[in-house]
Amino acid sequence: MKKKLIAGNWKMNGTLAANEALVQALLAGAAGNDCQVSVCVPAPYLAQVQQLLAGSGIDLGAQDVSQHEAGAFTGEVSAQMLRDFGVRYCLVGHSERRQYHGESDAVVAIKAQRALAAGITPVVCVGETLAERESGLTEEVVKRQLAVVIHTNGHGISEIVVAYEPVWAIGTGKTASAEQAQQVHAVLRNQLRAATPQADKMHILYGGSMNAANAAQLLAQADIDGGLVGGAALKSADFLAIIAAAQ
Ligand code: 13P
């Protein structure tokens, strides 16, 4: 059976000291768990967290990757650089990147391609805004976002992870109900099925105010294969409780 994947997205949080305490607590608490666990950390802390996670079952993740391979792109971090630090997963197209940095569907698709070429699993984030949901556009929006990634990556699509993160549920305390989330996950699964025979083996994560109290119900849905966790990933007890709910 496919193991659940629980990925923490630390966003722009952390210090050397706080990271060490958090990772040590996760290593102590997550030992022997039966799901895949990853932490997506800010780029300057990749080396630190790589060392802390060495030899453990927890995978290192990054939060973004450049659409370019190398060269004169000041401030950017390439997929190959992430690979140098043992990065296994990389978020692409997080709604905060789309919203605050103008990332288009086409740019997100190229970022996924760069990650795949470097042997990194892109976690492609899709999700509708509140206005889009209220206008009945949820399915149309997430399908459009994923379609460009499928079109750009061809057969490589079976190697990606998809994360459904309704924008209105991120950091707001408003979680999609398990039924609302499952409905969208089923739409995404069918879209993947049309693109690859591997669709049922792929992970589709839910993200948006997932916490210790609501994780079990969300993770029990047929097409919810794990979680992408923001705020609750910064507190070891909360993140460990979500990992426990995924067993
Ligand atoms: P919260 O769990 O804080 O809502 O964040 C979700 C998210 O954006 C994960 O990528």
Walk me through this protein's architecture.
The protein is an alpha/beta fold and 247 residues long. The protein contains ten helices and eight strands. It has helices at 16-30, 46-53, 79-84, 95-100, 105-117, 130-134, 138-153, 178-195, 215-219, 236-245; strands spanning 5-9, 36-41, 58-62, 89-92, 121-126, 161-164, 204-207, 226-229. The protein has an eight-stranded parallel barrel with strand order 1-2-3-4-5-6-7-8, surrounded by five helices. Strand 7, helix 9 and strand 8 form a beta-alpha-beta unit. Helix 1 packs parallel to helix 10, helix 5 (105-117) packs across helix 7 (138-153) and helix 7 (138-153) runs parallel beside helix 8 (178-195). The longest helix has 18 residues, at 178-195. The protein is globular. The N and C termini lie close together (12 Å). Residues 9, 94, 165, 170-171, 207-210, 228-232 line the site of 1,3-dihydroxyacetonephosphate. 1,3-dihydroxyacetonephosphate is lined by residues 9, 94, 165, 170-171, 207-210, 228-232.
What descriptive keywords fit this protein?
247 residues; alpha/beta; eight-stranded parallel beta barrel; 10 helices; binds 1,3-dihydroxyacetonephosphate
Give a topology summary.
Blueprint: E1 5-9, H1 16-30, E2 36-41, H2 46-53, E3 58-62, H3 79-84, E4 89-92, H4 95-100, H5 105-117, E5 121-126, H6 130-134, H7 138-153, E6 161-164, H8 178-195, E7 204-207, H9 215-219, E8 226-229, H10 236-245
Parallel strand pairs: 1-2, 1-8, 2-3, 3-4, 4-5, 5-6, 6-7, 7-8
The protein binds 1,3-dihydroxyacetonephosphate.
